[in-house]
Design goal:
The chain is an alpha+beta fold. The strands form four sheets. Strands 6, 9, 10, 11, 12, 13 and 14 form a seven-stranded antiparallel beta sheet that branches. Strands 1-2-4 form a three-stranded mixed beta sheet. A hairpin with a 6-residue loop joins strand 10 and strand 11. The protein is globular. The N and C termini lie far apart (about 35 Å).
Length: about 280
């Protein structure tokens, strides 16, 4: 039954080779392998171009939220057809890093996705997932995958006070069902309270700043929602020379390559306060 989402408990592979449990479909592994072979045979000239080329392969794929909420065991979930803004960026990064490492194997995409998605590169359950983008960028910076370049673009500061998850457990099914997780999440939030970080306020996103952001850079949109740091994430791309987003859009219900300038997109969202910018460095 090739079309059924499958639990693969790696009976045919060395136990040490992959995460213990992965959810994916045969179409997912086939499509990812095709993308890897296509990129390795292409003439992309840099990491940013490679990321955009890979991201383009997902345009039109369905936006689906909550795909990682697969139960207490926290399997590694991979889908080419059901993506939210974060899982889209993570999957594109994992594919690009795999190709950069000289591999075209799906197994290595699984390894890289686990590294990108979980604290210290290891899936140790729900609380090891990098739920906040501030957690995500710091961990991936330590892994040598991403670098934050916001401070190179802006001297403006914001104060983080991460507490949304621990103070709104009913918004997260697995926190609601497993109250023992809440204290652990809260302990992980504490270092990110009253923490100063750079950002680019949306009203100060000038053309000169935009010109320093490269296609393929990751743009995280900061928010005024209390207790959160970022509410959306996507890739920078240029439409007719104007900075825009390539992202999994909940409002459009799919992965889309915006023609709307990023500055207009931000201006139209009340809770969007600005952006932070990250660059792949592998």
């Amino acid at each position: 039954m090739k079309n059924i989402i499958t639990y693969l408990i790696f009976a045919l592979l060395p136990i040490a080779a992959m995460p213990q449990k992965v959810i994916y479909s045969s179409e997912d592994s086939t499509n990812i392998t095709k993308i890897l072979h296509g990129i390795s045979n292409s003439h992309t000239s840099g990491t940013g171009e490679k990321l955009i080329t890979i991201a383009d392969r997902f345009i039109g794929k369905k936006y689906v939220g909550g795909t990682l909420e697969q139960g207490k065991e926290e399997p590694l979930f991979i889908s080419c057809t059901k993506l939210d803004c974060t899982t889209f960026v993570e999957l594109v990064l994992a594919i690009a890093k795999t190709e950069n490492d000289g591999s075209t194997r799906f197994i290595d995409v699984c390894h890289n996705l686990e590294t990108i998605r979980y604290r210290n590169g290891k899936n140790n359950g729900y609380t090891s997932r990098l739920h906040y983008i501030s957690w995500w960028i710091n961990d991936n910076a330590k892994e040598g995958i991403l670098k934050e370049i916001t401070r190179e673009l802006s001297d403006e500061k914001q104060i983080l006070n991460l507490n949304f998850m621990s103070s709104h457990p009913s918004s997260y099914p697995l926190l609601d069902e497993n109250p023992e997780y809440i204290k652990e999440i809260e302990q992980l939030e504490i270092p990110y309270r009253n923490l100063q970080t750079n950002y680019i306020p949306k009203e100060k996103l000038s053309q000169s700043i935009c010109n320093k952001i490269k296609a393929g850079d990751i743009i995280a949109i900061t928010t005024s929602i209390k207790g959160l740091d970022v509410t959306h994430i996507g890739f920078a791309h240029y439409h007719n020379g104007v900075l825009s987003l390539l992202h999994a859009s909940s409002s459009k219900g799919a992965v889309t390559k915006d023609v709307q300038p990023l500055r207009e997109y931000l201006a139209g969202k009340k809770h969007h306060t600005g952006i932070r910018v990250f660059r792949a460095v592998f």
